[in-house]
Design brief:
The structure is a single chain. The chain is an alpha/beta fold. It has a single domain, classed as Alpha/beta knot, CATH 3.40.1280. The mean pLDDT is about 85. InterPro entries: Alpha/beta_knot_MTases, rRNA_Methyltransferase, SpoU_MeTrfase, tRNA_m1G_MTases_N. Pfam families: SpoU_methylase (PF00588).
Length: about 180
């Protein structure tokens, strides 16, 4: 039969039971390896998406102590179990402390010296992915605290992606899963 598929192996989708057996039985304890730092959030839906991505790649999420953030995280936690969240009352101070500890700090930002996402090295030690404000990006005073900057190439007419989408792509790359 010309043009018919079917000569390869049959595709079998994974069941929920298969997935549960192949993954962690519970959320990770903080192992101080990979962080998504959504320090200047604007939209609560993006925090929920980042929380889900952090669970998927084994990362922790660092967020600012803003009145609306706890509710946004609770609403966005579709896993319905505890996740690894760290709170920062001083975003710049938190980043500076991470840098002093020798943590690699990667900003997701459009910049002249940015590394393309495809060339970003996976995390081999403690690493923070800094996500900026959805409209304004990473504040200028925080740029000096970054070790490197990564940008996500785009072909279309837009200049940036939604912060949760961009953060998810970068976290998967840093986690070595893509």
């Amino acid at each position: 039969m010309t043009g018919m598929r079917g000569s390869g192996p049959a595709i079998r989708t994974s069941t929920r039971s298969d997935l549960k057996r192949s993954r962690r039985p519970r959320a990770h304890a903080c192992w101080d390896h990979l962080y998504a730092a959504a320090l200047w959030p604007m939209h609560n839906a993006n925090l929920g998406t980042m929380l889900r991505t952090c669970d998927a790649v084994g990362a922790c999420l660092t967020v600012p102590k803003l009145p609306w953030v706890p509710e946004a995280l609770a609403r966005g936690n579709t896993l319905r179990r505890p996740t690894c969240v760290h709170w920062s009352g001083d975003q710049l101070g938190w980043l500076a402390r991470q840098r002093e500890r020798g943590v690699r700090i990667v900003g997701v930002e459009l910049a002249e010296n940015a590394v393309r996402l495809a060339d970003l090295r996976p995390a081999r030690g403690a690493t923070v992915a800094v996500l900026g404000h959805e409209r304004d990006g990473i504040p200028p005073e925080a740029l000096d605290l970054l070790d490197e900057v990564v940008e996500i190439p785009m072909i279309g007419t837009g200049t940036t992606l939604n912060v949760a989408v961009a953060g998810s792509l970068v976290l998967y790359k840093l986690a070595g899963l893509v």
